[in-house]
Write a structure and sequence with these properties.
Blueprint lengths: L1 H8 L4 H6 L1 E4 L5 H10 L4 E7 L2 E8 L2 E7 L2 E2 H9 L5 E6 L12 H17 L2
Antiparallel strand pairs: 1-6, 2-3, 2-6, 3-4, 4-5
Amino acid sequence: MKLQRIVGRLHVDTAAANDGVQGNIRDMGIIEMIQVLSVGYRSVQILLTKGKTLAEIVLHKGQIIAATAGQVEGEAAALEILGWDEGQFRILPLKQVPPVSIRSSTDSLLLQSCYHKDHRAITP
């Protein structure tokens, strides 16, 4: 419900939309956030920080189309970010669609991320 309220605020007014929505990944999981934005067919830019690492995920019409995490780009960056359990995020309306660097579906990326998390949890 909290994420749905946040996503709803993206369309409240133009001045507020320019500021975006921000929060802590620990309070609002990145996977859940992406799921809601994807189902809502949203076009947004999500800026993230974890320690000194700066990252970005771009959704266009609900699909992840681009990602960067530090020097990593594309699908590898998306999978890295989706594995984050801490850090800060900021959701902004997408003003310009960047070149597509991810061809996998959002659902596929989310499933891969969950698989990697589960694998890390059982592997010492």
